[in-house]
Amino acid sequence: MKIAVYGKGGIGKSTTSCNISAALAKRGKKVLQIGCDPKHDSTFTLTGFLIPTIIDTLKDRDYHYENVWPEDVIYQGYGGVHCVEAGGPPAGAGCGGYVVGETVKLLKELDAFDAYDVILFDVLGDVVCGGFAAPLNYADYCLIVTDNGFDALFAANRIAASVREKARTHPLRLAGLIGNRTNKRDLIDKYTSVVPMPVLEVLPLIDDIRISRVKGKTIFEMAEKAPHLQPVCDYYLNIADQILARPEGVVPQDAPDRELFNLLSDF
Amino acid sequence: MKIAVYGKGGIGKSTTSCNISAALAKRGKKVLQIGCDPKHDSTFTLTGFLIPTIIDTLKDRDYHYENVWPEDVIYQGYGGVHCVEAGGPPAGAGCGGYVVGETVKLLKELDAFDAYDVILFDVLGDVVCGGFAAPLNYADYCLIVTDNGFDALFAANRIAASVREKARTHPLRLAGLIGNRTNKRDLIDKYTSVVPMPVLEVLPLIDDIRISRVKGKTIFEMAEKAPHLQPVCDYYLNIADQILARPEGVVPQDAPDRELFNLLSDF
Ligand SMILES: Nc1ncnc2c1ncn2[C@@H]1O[C@H](COP(=O)(O)OP(=O)(O)O)[C@@H](O)[C@H]1O
Ligand SMILES: Nc1ncnc2c1ncn2[C@@H]1O[C@H](COP(=O)(O)OP(=O)(O)O)[C@@H](O)[C@H]1O
Ligand code: SF4
Ligand SMILES: [Mg+2]
Ligand SMILES: [Mg+2]
Known about the structure:
- The structure is a homodimer.
- Chain A is of the alpha/beta class.
- Chain A is about 40% helix and about 15% strand.
- Chain A has an eight-stranded mixed beta sheet with strand order 3-4-2-5-1-6-7-8, with helices on both faces.
- In chain A, strand 6, helix 6 and strand 7 form a beta-alpha-beta unit.
- The relative contact order of chain A is 0.18.
- At the A-B interface, helix 6 and helix 11 of A face helix 6 and helix 11 of B.
- Bound molecules: adenosine-5'-diphosphate (2 copies), iron/sulfur cluster and magnesium ion (2 copies).
- One magnesium ion binds next to helix 1 of chain A.
């Protein structure tokens, strides 16, 4: 099964992805997480450090795939989760789509692309152009991380539109929304009333989550020494369980931008 | 003179751009503002409503440029500032670069591209790939809007790297940083100690600015009935005056990502 986690930059995609990967590992699954954000810090809390990107490694070897071994690009993280960072297009040139394409190509060469129970793509969702939509070509499900604000929901709607576009030619479905860092959900509910989709979980702002990232650990690793954090782990286990149940998912309806501005913005 | 304003999504690029455009108009300049964000709400506080995008208009006319008139795509805003929204690539397909390219092509056909004292591009800066770097091909100066946080400064560094790349083949310079919605500037100063560049202004979070956007007005229009807002206008007049003085600008130095993580992140 392949999952693509999308959301606006800084919304908590990587924090959420690492904890979902750790939760899937707790459920006995062999997981590979692939970071697809130019910030290339997706897998930081799984490995505890910034791993080299695929693009950097390929450049070092003059793009000779035959000189790249799995251990050069795939790193072991917490709970046995394997980690890869695609990296971003060189600033001011190149294309996000090319980077994702090269990453998948290399993983296939290394016979790694189909060796996992779950592959999770962590993808920047500010600009869902042809390039950054590339991971959707490989995904069974898309998950969208959002808060309760206009900008993140506007980005969520563009991501949903990309899923609708790709679902015409791929077996892709939207598994739903994950609310993050918010106690309120009135705008999330307004949005899903216009574009129906499941809301898998809503996580409030939890300082322990922020601290776990500073320490370079998932919340699961933190909970080993601080059992009171188990309820925080449960948010992510709940998400993992819903995905492992292979939900129907949706092909999202179209909500034109103007409708979204009227519905959600304070203009 | 052509300026490109970049920054992470939601950082305040459009609010800052509209107020700079209004300030330039106060200095007697004929200004055109071009929004290059898929959110296409760049010029909202200048016009008071969401204007149709170039891409939507071209699509309506089957891409027959000869059937498009200036008044179909160029709208009058506050202070005589002219407004255009490029729009974004269709979700899940297309490219940001194509949209910017089509916009500039159409404005040239309409003899509009060189009819202004100042053209200001308001561009999303989360992913500065070849596509979203396209406005830099036309710009004399780039301005970067940031807050005092890691994510916005990481985006700022990629934007700076794009300026360095483009400055090799174009007469482009980085005019500097604009701090926004922040009372602190310790991380901004740390960043500029490693990558020297001018800091044109630092604006705190000012509730009147937030309100002006809700009302669909620039701070300049608000100040006509509420003179106590003049000090807020002065921030933008100060930025406009620095740009009109045709500063030297810089070709930013290279700061590798790892250095930025060590310097600015709490990892
Ligand atoms: N539920 C949460 N509660 C508190 N902090 C959070 C939560 N989720 C994410 N964060 C914090 O938000 C910041 C951005 O998260 P990150 O995962 O890097 O975002 P993204 O990958 O979308 O850019 C990090 O500092 C992280 O610790
Ligand atoms: N200095 C400021 N003080 C208070 N609010 C601000 C300030 N600058 C921008 N804002 C608010 O921040 C939000 C995002 O601004 P916007 O200009 O739309 O960002 P962007 O164009 O970068 O996506 C808006 O609600 C705006 O009113
Ligand atoms: S397709 Fe997207 S990532 Fe690729 S160059 Fe265009 S805007 Fe950039
Ligand atoms: Mg991330
Ligand atoms: Mg904007």
